[in-house]
Amino acid sequence: MSAISLKKKEEGQEPSDAVEETVKVWDPVVRLFHWTIVAACTLNLFILEEGKYWHRITGYVVAAAIVIRVLWGFVGTRHARFSDFLPTPRRVMEQILDMIDGNERRYLGHNPLASVMMLLLMALLAATALTGWMTTLDAFWGEKWLEKLHGTIANGIMVLAFVHAGAAIVESWRHRENLVWSMVTGRKKA
C-alpha cells in the first residue's frame, strides 16, 4: 500500500484508484544539474553576448555542474549512477527494435537511448566549456579555429537539446506520464 493510500486509510477515506502511485526516481542533485544546464544553455545560446563576462561565468557554472554530476554518477542514488544506465550497444539495439515492434519497455530511470543522449550532451557540454575557457588563454587568444569549434559544438548542443526535449514529449505521450514534470518533482509513476 502506498503512502497516499495509508494516509487516506488513517483519515477514514478509501484509497482511490484515481490517485496514481509514484516513486522517487530523480534525486535533487540530478534535478538541479538538469535545470542548471537548461538555464545555462538558454542563457548562453540565446540571451547573453558571446565571450562577455556573464557568458563566461555561465560557462564556468556548467563546467562545475558537470564535475559534480560526473562524481554523483559514481556515488549518487541508484538512478543517478552510471552503472544503472550504461548504454551498451545491445541495450540500445534492443530498445530500437522494441520501438519498431511497438513493444517498447518502460524504464524507471534512463532508457538506453536517453542514456546515450545524456552522455553525449555531457561530453559536448564539457568540450564547450573547455574550448570556451581556452579562448581566454594567451596561447589561444584570437584563434578563429578555436572560436569556430566552440560555436560549432554549442550549436550541436542546441540541436541535440531540441531532439532530447522532443523525445521527452513523445515518450511522455507513449508511456502516459509527464517526463518533464518528473524532472521537476523527482517522481515517476510506479
Automatic annotation (TrEMBL):
**Transmembrane regions:** 29-47, 53-72, 113-133, 153-173
How does the protein's chain sit in the membrane according to the entry?
Answer: Multi-pass membrane protein
Identify the residues that the record assigns to the Cytochrome b561 bacterial/Ni-hydrogenase domain, covering every copy.
25-186
Q: Where in the cell is it found?
A: Cell membrane
Top-rank taxon of the source lineage equals Bacteria
Keywords assigned? Cell membrane, Membrane, Transmembrane, Transmembrane helix
Q: What is its main location?
A: membrane
Q: Please state what the protein is called.
A: Cytochrome b/b6 domain-containing protein
- State the organism named in the record: Rhizobium mesosinicum
